[in-house]
């Protein structure tokens, strides 16, 4: 009974008072200090593990981004190649349609499969052969101009000798007769390649022929070796030739011999089999 009375008295006193006693304040302060000291390292550890989780997410996102960039790069390269191919095909198509208005030639499109790096034999190999109707000495061109002549033919492939590699001293060399576009009746010459200067030369031009800088040089079609009207290049200069009896013109080749992808073999109508 005494204990119950004391308990009720203490409870009543505690409920009536407005502030905490000094022992309670001491316990609260001590507990708060310990709680604050423990909160910082625990919070740091918890934040560390949260950062690890976020880092894992960032790593996964980076992997996805890398794959996306790689696919984009591949698609961009593929797109650039397709765009470049389409541009070349459009130029070739426009060229053939334009040429059909002037000459009754047939053009066989050929893929370039090899280009020799031998300085003494810079030939080009194309993926057309005898089974496709290719013959030796046929003209090979691009949309820009004359590239060379077919020098040898096998069943499935052919070798092309560029006009920049034709040796005028060779017994097998083919003389390319040329004229000036628009002046076919007065200006004739023979095309040779000057390896020292890296340009073509049109020699044996009549001294009275009016050959000027910027004139377009085309094949003359003499001797039935090459079809006429194939663009060879542009006149850079014209000077007096040997002995002062003829003139020699310097020609800038129209065709671009580096990075050849497709060429066209010109098939002219056979005069014996119309």
Structure commentary:
- With 274 residues, this protein is of the alpha+beta class.
- It folds into 2 domains: 18-101; 106-267, Beta Barrel (Thrombin, subunit H), CATH 2.40.10.
- 34% of the residues lie in helices and 28% in strands.
- It has 2 helices and 12 strands; from the N terminus they run ααββββββββββββ.
- It has helices at 2-16, 22-99, and strands at residues 106-115, 124-126, 139-141, 146-153, 158-162, 176-180, 188-194, 199-206, 216-219, 231-240, 246-253, 262-267.
- The strands form 2 sheets. The protein has a 6-stranded antiparallel barrel with strand order 1-2-5-4-3-12. The protein has a 6-stranded antiparallel β-barrel with strand order 6-7-8-11-10-9.
- The chain is rod-shaped, with a radius of gyration of 44 Å.
């Amino acid at each position: 009974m005494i204990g119950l009375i004391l308990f009720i008295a203490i409870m009543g006193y505690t409920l009536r008072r407005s502030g905490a006693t000094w022992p309670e304040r001491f316990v609260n302060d001590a507990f708060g200090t310990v709680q604050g000291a423990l909160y910082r390292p625990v919070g740091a550890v918890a934040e560390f593990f949260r950062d690890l989780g976020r880092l894992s997410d960032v790593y996964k996102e980076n992997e996805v981004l890398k794959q996306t960039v790689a696919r984009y790069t591949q698609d961009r390269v593929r797109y650039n190649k397709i765009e470049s191919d389409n541009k070349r095909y459009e130029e070739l198509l426009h060229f053939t349609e334009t040429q059909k208005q002037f000459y009754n030639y047939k053009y066989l499109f050929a893929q370039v499969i090899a280009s020799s790096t031998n300085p003494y034999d810079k030939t080009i190999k194309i993926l057309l052969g005898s089974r496709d109707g290719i013959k030796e000495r046929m003209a090979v061109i691009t949309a820009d101009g004359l590239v060379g002549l077919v020098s040898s033919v096998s069943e499935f492939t052919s070798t092309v000798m560029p006009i920049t590699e034709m040796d005028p001293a060779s017994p097998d060399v083919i003389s390319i007769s040329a004229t000036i576009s628009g002046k076919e009746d007065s200006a004739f010459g023979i095309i040779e390649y000057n390896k020292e200067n890296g340009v073509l030369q049109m020699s044996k031009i009549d001294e009275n022929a009016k050959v000027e800088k910027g004139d377009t040089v085309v094949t003359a079609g003499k001797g039935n070796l090459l079809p006429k009207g194939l663009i060879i290049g542009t006149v850079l200069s014209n000077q007096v030739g040997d002995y002062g009896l003829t003139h020699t013109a310097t020609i800038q080749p129209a065709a671009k011999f580096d990075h050849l992808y497709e060429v066209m073999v010109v098939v002219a109508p056979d005069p014996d089999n119309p």
